Amino acid sequence: MSRKLLIFIVAFTLALVAFVVWWFTRPAPQVNVQPVNTTTEVTPAELQPWQTTTSPAVPATPEQVAQTSAKNFALRFVEIYGSYSSDAPYQNLKAVDYMFTSNFKQIVEAQTAQTEPAGGFYGVTTKALTAQVSNQTESSATVLISTQRQELFSRTGEPQLRYQDIKVTLVKQGQSWLVESAEWQ
Fold it and tell me: Taking the CB of residue 168, how many other CB atoms lie within 10 A of it?
């Protein structure tokens, strides 16, 4: 290789490296953006029917917080309580027994001891849809929950879908809600 060609290749490589270094170390272009004030006051009379206004959030009252707490507790409980699989009999109830009062725990244990599992596979999945709180006091609440239940029997092979309500009575012990009763309607 000739000496001139070697010098040209080295010079070209150095120039290429210098360009790459310059390209990645150069400062980003500065864009001057001027803030634009587009806030306009609109009176309700000027709104079209499809437009809405937003109002500032109002803090929840202690009663609303207690009602939401009871409702959420009951919704979570019902989805587990209402689901069952013969592959793991009554494991759903064992999973939520910490949510029971001692009285309700005794009732549930007595019912499960008397119930014989059906032959073949049986499973039910419960989904809580809506909840309405009624008769709420500081220490108790009654929640009516609408559910969707899907049952599967190995004999039929076809899942059956039904809607069923359940009334859950809660009592407050300390800061926690506990289930006093649960009655399918």
Answer: 25
Domain limits of the chain? 62-184
Would you state the structure tokens that stand for residue 127, as one six-digit string?
């989904």
Predicted confidence band of residue 39 (pLDDT cuts 50, 70, 90): low
Beta bridge partners of 133: 143
Phi-psi sector, 34: left (phi>0), alpha (psi -120 to 50), beta: beta
If one counts every other C-beta atom within 10 angstroms of the C-beta of residue 83, the result is 17
The pair of structure tokens assigned to 64 is 């609303």
Q: What is the CATH number of domain 62-184?
A: 3.10.450.230
Asked if 150 contacts 165 with a C-beta cutoff of 8 angstroms, the reply is no
Q: Is the pLDDT of residue 29 over 70?
A: no
pLDDT digits (tens, 9 = 90+) for 74-120: 999 999 999 998 888 888 898 888 999 999 999 999 988 887 766 78
CB atoms near residue 48 (< 10 Å): 6
Q: What pTM did the predictor assign?
A: 0.65
Q: Residue 86 and residue 45: Cα distance in Å, rounded?
A: 62
Q: What is the 3-state secondary structure (H, E, C) of 114-147?
A: HCCCCCCCEEEEEEEEEEEEECCCCCEEEEEEEE
